[in-house]
Design a protein that fits this description.
By secondary structure, the protein is an alpha/beta fold. The protein has three domains: about 110 residues, Glutaredoxin, CATH 3.40.30; about 80 residues, Serine Threonine Protein Phosphatase 5, Tetratricopeptide repeat (Alpha Horseshoe), CATH 1.25.40.10; about 80 residues, Serine Threonine Protein Phosphatase 5, Tetratricopeptide repeat (Alpha Horseshoe), CATH 1.25.40.10. Helices cover about 55% and strands about 10% of the residues. Strands 1-3-2-4-5 form a five-stranded mixed beta sheet, sandwiched between helices. It is elongated.
Length: about 300
């Protein structure tokens, strides 16, 4: 069993080693927590891709694992003894012995998965706990508390897509729509289709739409006076959703789809899809809405 240690100082988590210091830096240190030895060389292109990812993930682990780098050009003896024939090569030492490893430049997700296996799932635990706490705060209506937690996560990793999306949603809940837009603009281009980002973007758009439809009571009166006024019913759905009345909003849009599927270029169905994006796939209103919509469209 690995010994429990206090998180190490950030600057001590990543270091260079030599043939002379290898035993202390890797063998002995691995008796306290896992140590990764990264064999690299200045001429190695894939090494330049992998090393920053290793450093980032090791620092994020906050002392549960250390990274030691060895330049094989300057120190060929150790990699020679270990049979290292190509680089980058990463070997994990635990309790003084090689325990696992990989060769080649892996993407960040696979490096994290490797560390998870090595530490039996303890890597990233703090981040997951903070994300869960922030989500709970947001669900409880504490937008300020959620925003503070998301901001703490982003201070450690400003590319954390879940935290960026969560912070944007917190800003939406607080009515700070411009700050929400600015936060979503920070999401990397390749992550814009992440489900959490799509949900945050949809929530922002719905809030902006709801601001333009007028008071809820007036819309309810319009629909009551003229049930065939699809635009009033559509606007009522937006207003109801902005008040957290998801099932009532769902009912209004489903009614439009039943009565006139083609109204406003299939606008009611498209709006329902945006609701589902904002609410999330596991929300009860989303599940019920998808069932009702399917029963209408495929009847």
């Amino acid at each position: 069993m690995l010994q429990q240690t206090q998180p190490a100082a950030a600057e001590a988590l990543v270091k260079e080693t030599t043939t002379q210091t290898f035993v202390n830096d890797v063998i002995e240190e691995s008796k306290r927590q896992p140590v990764l030895i990264d064999f690299w060389a200045p001429w190695c292109g894939p090494c330049k891709q992998l090393t920053p990812i290793l450093e980032k993930t090791v620092r994020a682990a906050k002392g549960k694992v250390r990274l030691v780098k060895m330049n094989i050009d300057e120190h060929p003896q150790i990699p020679g003894q270990m049979g290292i024939q190509s680089i980058p090569a990463v070997i994990a030492f635990v309790n003084g012995q090689p325990a696992d490893g990989f060769m080649g430049a892996l993407p960040e997700s696979q490096v994290i998965a490797f560390l998870e296996r090595l530490t039996k799932g303890s890597i990233g635990g703090e981040t997951k706990d903070m994300l869960n706490a922030a989500e709970a705060a947001l669900d409880a209506g504490d937008a300020a508390g959620a925003a503070e937690l998301y901001a703490q996560l982003l201070a450690e990793d400003n590319t954390n897509v879940a935290a960026l999306a969560g912070l944007a949603r917190a800003h939406v809940e607080a009515g700070a729509l411009e700050r929400a837009r600015q936060t979503l603009a920070m999401v990397p281009e390749g992550k814009r289709n992440d489900s959490a980002v799509v949900a945050a973007q949809a929530a922002l758009q719905l809030t902006e739409q709801a601001k333009a439809v007028g008071p809820l009571a007036e819309l309810e009166q319009k629909v009551a006076a003229n049930p065939g006024d699809h635009q009033a019913r559509f606007d009522l759905a937006l207003a109801l959703n902005s008040k957290g009345r998801r099932r009532d909003a769902l009912e209004q849009l489903v009614t439009i789809v039943k009565r006139d599927r083609k109204w406003n270029d299939d606008g009611a169905r498209k709006q329902l899809v945006q609701f589902f994006d904002a609410w999330g796939a596991t929300d009860e209103a989303t599940i019920e809405g998808r069932k009702q919509l399917s029963s209408i469209l495929f009847a």
